[in-house]
Amino acid sequence: MPTVSVKRDSLFKALGQSYSDDEFQKLCFDFGLELDEVTTEQQIIAKEQGTESSKGASEEIIYKIDVPANRYDLLCLEGLTAGLLVFLEKIPQPRYKLIYPTSQNKLEKITVKSACMNVRPFVVGAILRGITLTKESYDSFIDLQDKLHQNLGRKRSLVSIGTHDLDTIKGPFVYNAEPPKDINFKPLNQDKEYNGEEIMDLYAHHAQLKQYLPIIKDSPVYPIIYDSNGVVLSLPPIINSDHSKITLNTKNIFIECTNTDLTKGQIAVDILVSAFSQYCKDKYTVEPVEIIYEATKEVVRSPTLQYRSNEINSDDAVNFIGIKETPQKVAKLLSKMCLKSQVKNGNILSVEIPPTRHDVIHARDIYEDIAIAWGYNNILKTVPKILSVGKKFPLNKLTDHLRQELAQCAFTETLTFALCSREDVSDKLGWSFDQIPAVTISNPKTLEFQVVRTTLLPGLLKTIGANKNMPLPLKLYEISDVVLRDPQAECGARNQRRLCALYYNKSAGLEVIHGLLDRIMSLLEVPWNVNKTDDGYYLEATEDPTYFSEYCANVIVHGKVIGKMGVLHPDVLHKFDLRRPCSVVEINIEPFL
């Protein structure tokens, strides 16, 4: 969930009322939010820098509020206070509208060249006229853009917003894509011009911007926006031009939003202009921009600030939630959630969905807002009106039984990470990664979490490595899921519940692991089969680079291999920084259900 940091005093001033921390926490809960932390700017900076204090930082109280991931309209102070004030019925719901110049021909235009189709094909625009920003509202404006970039825009890969002082540039504007060497302008807060390649080098080590460079770096052309005089506005999704930067003196803001997902681009602009149009001379008004696509000759205007309507059955809604209320009361509850509603015919409600509520796409979303406005804690608990008996999932029930028995065998349970590095499941175990059916993470945060584990063994070995000073022997086990790539599965992969036990001592102790396996099979009522037929279980010698040659065996139950048992190869132990022998058994427990 995204977190919004707002100054407490500014928030209370906007709400027109002061609250204690507990009172505001309750208000957040009633509105479907959560007050995550009460802190100060000084404490935040000190925590980030790892110091006890931070000179010059404010000691003003800051509220960190967790916002649902789909409520983009609440990601800034302006949107949050508007939503709370409507919820508290202190103000009517804002009505957003488009305004046009005296002549339709004077609408600002952006022409999208055909070359853009190969890099960032879409653009959306808007203009805020007669706006007045303070230092606080300016910071909030920039912060909302950043949050939209990170959440809705998936770190600018889908959406990138540029904001410009309209009085410093002249339309119509051109959105084109050109070779990096042909692009020259002065980036934001820089003192000289750079071309496209030099800008990539300039921001290669920038703390914030370096993460966005790969989005276009390998493209033969970079997206670029010019005005009618050839002045560069921005190089999306990297940086704006210093020429058109907005300041506290800016009165007219031109917004351009390039994107690879047109719907998300429209949502981003709708949220941005809805939140800050309250600072315009004519409150809640936005001037649209005309977009002309050269390749298709299509002409569109944005934003549309469209109000949608939906009809729901009030009886269906209250029955779904589990409350009893009249259609008139339900309509009032929805209006508190910025969904203006009225009773149409009998129990049919006509619900108006504003341009700020793009999260409402189904009747169930409207039901959710009714439940929030009613209060989850106010919904009475009732016995289900169906005949059913709850019971534990069979696989989990089996897992719990085995855990108890392994603990009684003096083995200690561990719980290790489900993600690991590529080397953990391949090279360190003597395998090539190409031979492993591993599910790879497309954007791993660290080298330690690149793939989903295909075996429980690396996690246990790392646990041993972190506890080498503990008295010997070390007897560990884990019963958890691994994930295996499977083309036949609906999602291309499947989970498999496994049991892995490990014995680490001065001697390998294979007999200890073998005894544990016999105990497990005895509990599962699977007999030892001397004749090695499909009835019962037996061991069969095999070769595996993870284990000592001739000290490895397949565990076969009812004719099918369910796992392996053996003494780990010294190379494997060395790669996990272990110096003593180790025996392991790892089996799939799902066949025993």
Automatic annotation (TrEMBL):
Keywords: Aminoacyl-tRNA synthetase, ATP-binding, Cytoplasm, Ligase, Magnesium, Metal-binding, Nucleotide-binding, Protein biosynthesis. The keyword Nucleotide-binding applies. The keyword Cell cycle does not apply. Its cofactor is Mg(2+). One of its GO terms (cellular component) is phenylalanine-tRNA ligase complex. It comes from the Eukaryota. One of its GO terms (molecular function) is RNA binding. Pfam families: B3_4 (PF03483), B5 (PF03484), PhetRS_B1 (PF18262), tRNA_synthFbeta (PF17759). Its EC number is 6.1.1.20. PROSITE patterns: B5 (PS51483). It is found in: Cytoplasm. It catalyses: tRNA(Phe) + L-phenylalanine + ATP = L-phenylalanyl-tRNA(Phe) + AMP + diphosphate + H(+). Residues 305-381 form the B5 domain. Signal peptide: none annotated. One of its GO terms (biological process) is phenylalanyl-tRNA aminoacylation. Its main location: cytoplasm. Tetramer of two alpha and two beta subunits. Belongs to the phenylalanyl-tRNA synthetase beta subunit family. Type 2 subfamily. This is Phenylalanine--tRNA ligase beta subunit.
